[in-house]
Write a structure and sequence with these properties.
2 domains; 92% helix; mainly alpha
Length: 86
């Protein structure tokens, strides 16, 4: 192979390595972010809130049956949730 072609391949290889490093860092950042969010959910579940289990089951049924209707019910459910938390 000519040296020019070898240099081009070496640059492409280096670029791919840098790009892979960036993607690895992004995935690691997302993993940290999601583990923080799931930790919050685990805290909620550890407090012993049985309604959380019931609410998640109902939400799953609503999502499976009617996406459009859920879009209408979700704002009302969130308002009710905020009222209950106060």
């Amino acid at each position: 192979m000519p040296p020019r072609k070898m240099n081009e391949l070496a640059r492409r290889k280096q670029l791919l390595l840098v790009e892979a490093g960036v993607h690895r860092a992004i995935l690691q950042w997302h993993g940290v972010r999601w583990s923080a969010r799931t930790a919050q959910l685990r805290e909620l579940a550890a407090v012993g809130k049985p309604w959380l289990l019931l609410a998640s089951g109902i939400a799953g049924l609503l999502i499976a049956r009617n996406w459009r209707r859920l879009g209408q019910l979700l704002p009302a459910a969130l308002s009710a949730w905020r009222t209950i938390r106060r």
